[in-house]
Design goal:
This protein is mostly helical. It has one domain. It contains three helices and no strands. α1 packs antiparallel against α2 and α1 runs parallel beside α3. The N and C termini lie far apart (85 Å). The model has no long low-confidence stretch (mean pLDDT 83).
Length: 137
Protein backbone atom coordinates (compact mmCIF):
# COMPACT_ATOMS: atom_id res chain seq x y z
CA UNK A 1 0.00 0.00 0.00
CA UNK A 2 1.08 3.51 -0.65
CA UNK A 3 1.16 6.67 1.38
CA UNK A 4 -2.29 7.90 0.34
CA UNK A 5 -3.94 4.54 1.06
CA UNK A 6 -2.50 4.61 4.58
CA UNK A 7 -3.79 8.17 4.96
CA UNK A 8 -7.31 7.12 4.00
CA UNK A 9 -7.23 4.18 6.41
CA UNK A 10 -5.92 6.47 9.14
CA UNK A 11 -8.72 8.93 8.39
CA UNK A 12 -11.31 6.17 8.82
CA UNK A 13 -9.76 5.27 12.18
CA UNK A 14 -9.86 8.91 13.26
CA UNK A 15 -13.53 9.20 12.23
CA UNK A 16 -14.34 6.08 14.25
CA UNK A 17 -12.36 7.43 17.21
CA UNK A 18 -14.24 10.72 17.08
CA UNK A 19 -17.55 8.84 17.20
CA UNK A 20 -16.41 6.76 20.18
CA UNK A 21 -15.14 9.78 22.11
CA UNK A 22 -18.35 11.73 21.48
CA UNK A 23 -20.27 8.68 22.70
CA UNK A 24 -18.09 8.62 25.83
CA UNK A 25 -18.89 12.27 26.53
CA UNK A 26 -22.61 11.53 26.15
CA UNK A 27 -22.34 8.57 28.54
CA UNK A 28 -20.57 10.75 31.10
CA UNK A 29 -23.29 13.38 30.85
CA UNK A 30 -25.89 10.66 31.50
CA UNK A 31 -23.93 9.21 34.47
CA UNK A 32 -23.50 5.81 32.82
CA UNK A 33 -20.03 5.04 34.14
CA UNK A 34 -19.97 1.29 33.45
CA UNK A 35 -20.62 1.82 29.75
CA UNK A 36 -18.13 4.70 29.72
CA UNK A 37 -15.40 2.44 31.12
CA UNK A 38 -16.28 -0.37 28.70
CA UNK A 39 -15.95 2.07 25.82
CA UNK A 40 -12.58 3.27 27.12
CA UNK A 41 -10.93 -0.03 26.18
CA UNK A 42 -12.28 0.27 22.62
CA UNK A 43 -10.92 3.80 22.40
CA UNK A 44 -7.50 2.62 23.60
CA UNK A 45 -7.40 -0.19 21.01
CA UNK A 46 -8.30 2.24 18.26
CA UNK A 47 -5.62 4.68 19.41
CA UNK A 48 -3.09 1.84 19.23
CA UNK A 49 -4.17 1.06 15.65
CA UNK A 50 -3.78 4.72 14.73
CA UNK A 51 -0.27 4.74 16.21
CA UNK A 52 0.66 1.68 14.15
CA UNK A 53 -0.58 3.30 10.96
CA UNK A 54 1.27 6.51 11.81
CA UNK A 55 4.49 4.47 11.79
CA UNK A 56 3.60 3.05 8.38
CA UNK A 57 2.83 6.55 7.14
CA UNK A 58 6.22 7.80 8.23
CA UNK A 59 7.92 4.87 6.53
CA UNK A 60 6.14 5.57 3.23
CA UNK A 61 6.37 9.36 3.34
CA UNK A 62 9.87 9.43 1.84
CA UNK A 63 8.68 8.26 -1.56
CA UNK A 64 8.31 10.89 -4.25
CA UNK A 65 4.79 11.68 -5.49
CA UNK A 66 3.43 13.70 -8.35
CA UNK A 67 1.67 17.00 -7.68
CA UNK A 68 -1.88 15.61 -7.88
CA UNK A 69 -1.18 12.95 -5.27
CA UNK A 70 0.63 15.49 -3.13
CA UNK A 71 -2.40 17.82 -3.18
CA UNK A 72 -4.73 14.93 -2.32
CA UNK A 73 -2.45 13.90 0.55
CA UNK A 74 -2.44 17.46 1.89
CA UNK A 75 -6.25 17.60 1.79
CA UNK A 76 -6.50 14.32 3.69
CA UNK A 77 -3.94 15.53 6.24
CA UNK A 78 -5.93 18.74 6.74
CA UNK A 79 -9.05 16.66 7.30
CA UNK A 80 -7.18 14.56 9.88
CA UNK A 81 -5.99 17.77 11.58
CA UNK A 82 -9.61 18.99 11.79
CA UNK A 83 -10.65 15.68 13.35
CA UNK A 84 -7.79 15.92 15.84
CA UNK A 85 -8.93 19.43 16.81
CA UNK A 86 -12.48 18.20 17.46
CA UNK A 87 -11.07 15.24 19.42
CA UNK A 88 -9.07 17.64 21.57
CA UNK A 89 -12.22 19.64 22.32
CA UNK A 90 -14.07 16.44 23.22
CA UNK A 91 -11.24 15.31 25.48
CA UNK A 92 -11.28 18.68 27.27
CA UNK A 93 -15.04 18.42 27.78
CA UNK A 94 -14.62 14.85 29.05
CA UNK A 95 -11.92 15.97 31.48
CA UNK A 96 -14.14 18.78 32.76
CA UNK A 97 -17.07 16.37 33.23
CA UNK A 98 -14.89 13.86 35.06
CA UNK A 99 -13.65 16.55 37.43
CA UNK A 100 -17.23 17.64 38.13
CA UNK A 101 -18.30 14.05 38.80
CA UNK A 102 -15.28 13.52 41.04
CA UNK A 103 -16.20 16.61 43.05
CA UNK A 104 -19.82 15.47 43.40
CA UNK A 105 -18.76 12.00 44.54
CA UNK A 106 -16.30 13.50 47.00
CA UNK A 107 -19.07 15.65 48.52
CA UNK A 108 -21.31 12.59 48.84
CA UNK A 109 -18.48 10.68 50.51
CA UNK A 110 -17.98 13.48 53.03
CA UNK A 111 -21.71 13.51 53.80
CA UNK A 112 -21.60 9.78 54.45
CA UNK A 113 -18.49 10.08 56.62
CA UNK A 114 -19.94 12.86 58.74
CA UNK A 115 -23.15 10.92 59.18
CA UNK A 116 -25.57 13.26 57.45
CA UNK A 117 -26.59 10.53 55.05
CA UNK A 118 -25.83 7.49 57.15
CA UNK A 119 -28.21 8.48 59.95
CA UNK A 120 -31.07 9.17 57.60
CA UNK A 121 -31.79 5.46 57.33
CA UNK A 122 -31.78 4.92 61.09
CA UNK A 123 -34.17 7.72 62.00
CA UNK A 124 -37.74 6.94 63.08
CA UNK A 125 -36.95 3.29 63.75
CA UNK A 126 -38.21 3.54 67.31
CA UNK A 127 -37.01 5.15 70.47
CA UNK A 128 -36.11 2.02 72.39
CA UNK A 129 -33.43 0.40 70.29
CA UNK A 130 -31.52 -2.04 72.50
CA UNK A 131 -27.79 -1.69 72.42
CA UNK A 132 -27.11 -5.27 73.38
CA UNK A 133 -29.15 -8.33 72.62
CA UNK A 134 -30.06 -10.55 75.52
CA UNK A 135 -29.77 -14.22 74.90
CA UNK A 136 -31.59 -16.83 76.83
CA UNK A 137 -29.73 -19.93 77.09
Amino acid sequence: MGFIEYLYINTEFYEELRGLVENQVRLLEEDRFAEFLALSSSVQKLQDKIAQYQKKLRANSNRSMDDAKMMKAQEVQQHIAAIQTSLQASYEKMERLLLEKQEQLHKELLKIKTGQKALRGYGNKGKNIPRFLETTG
